[in-house]
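Model it.
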Amino acid sequence: MHAISCAESAVVLHLKRAPMFKRASEAALARMAQGAVLLEFAKAETIYEEDAPAEACYLVLSGRVKLVHLLNDGHERLVHVMGSLDHAGLTSMFRQTTYACSAVAQESCRLLRLQRRDFLEAVASCPKLAQDLLGMLAIRIRMLTKKLGSQGSRIGARLAAFILHRTRFGDEDGSIDLGMSREELANMMGTARETLSRNLSRLVAEGLVAVSGRKVTILDRKGLEAWAGDEPEAGASRS
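Modeled.
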């Protein structure tokens, strides 16, 4: 990790790109920018560790960051992968406690580190920013609730739901980057890579998606939504 020189005015411009800061006042953005630090991490470098004091949150400017939970047997369970303009450590920082999981650079990336005190003072001074953050946290809670509710679902349904979720990161040509390898995705879903690949092949065979490497293109959104809702259509086979 190393810090990169960045003027406060440039930090403000970075903050303005993030959806959660769209309605923040100039004063609130300037307050957050005062103690912000632009950092660059190499691939596989740890950004923060699980159970470390949550003294800051991070805005991803480029690259990808994976959140992982360390298991008792020494292995790690992939929790989530964050891309450009996602944030890491925000909920833990609000609770004034420790990070719930570790954050690791999945590839070379740049992040903006926002100090807890500066961030909370900015939120307290800007009602619109507070409202937008509450809305964003509500969406996160809803996503987590759905994820927990789907743990008993078939892998095919969970895979379809994940692809639909990734549509917000879609390219202009309509393709979606899964954001991780099949092995990492299988790890996150708690299944074997072979099982994941088999279910992805079934989505292709059903004509729901087309796959090229890590790129997925949705061909039949309604059909994919039916899979995600675990509502089998005629002829559909799942495991």
